[in-house]
Amino acid sequence: MANAINSGPTNCLTHIYFELFRLDWGDRIREAQSADALKRQWRRCKVRKLPKSLEDTQHQVEDIFAYVLDHDRGNGTVPEKAASYYKLMGGTAFSFRPQFIHYELWGDAAFTKVLYPGSIYDLISYHLRECVKRELRLRVCRNCGRYFHLSGRSTAMYCCRPYDEKGHICRKNAPVRAWAKRNEKDEVFREYRREYKRRFAWINAGKIERNTFFAWSRQAKEKKAECSAGSLSFKDFVEWLRES
Asked: Is the pTM of this model over 0.90?
């Protein structure tokens, strides 16, 4: 389903929320400049209240994510959790607005729904309504702490977004980092991992063949298991790592 404002698609580098916000307040500023003193004062009041209004809306949306859409929080279906939440919050919860949606030709071939939002609040209302309507299951990523959609199996704990400047993906890299962190206090593991990384680097440096490295790695894992089980002393394990 395609959704757009009536002016058509915007630059892909500009989020639609912020583009509409720019257009909306650009018009307001131009109107205020040509208005009389009373209207200008009223508009200044609206501008002053804007940061607080947006902050309140953000908290309301976060609450719906947490109390209604969070797969790991509360019991029941999304509609059931929504009913419980709105009963609890009364008039302080997010207020959904009627939507002006039209069917029309979009582009050269697509005949689809087109949303005509009157404000940034309408865009938020529409997308949040779709999340509740489709009963999307969300979970907080254990690595970056942001919500992600559980589109498949419900056992996924990490999202598919990059979490650092190098472009590392939570789902690919975070489990390895978590595993390493769990074992960082294990002296046996720490010595094994230090030597493993050192020798792995030899492959790119041309100091060792891959087959030789993997053969050593299999032996090292066996020795590590022996040391962890107590059949090989830690001192002998360290000496083996350095002399093997």
From this structure: no
| Spatial CA neighbour of 21 closest among 56, 51, 1, 59 | 51
Q: Which domain covers residue 103, as residue numbers?
A: 16-136
Are residues 193 and 127 part of one domain? no
49-71 residue pLDDT tens: 666 778 888 999 999 999 999 99
Give phi and psi for 26, each to the nearest 5. Answer: -65, -40
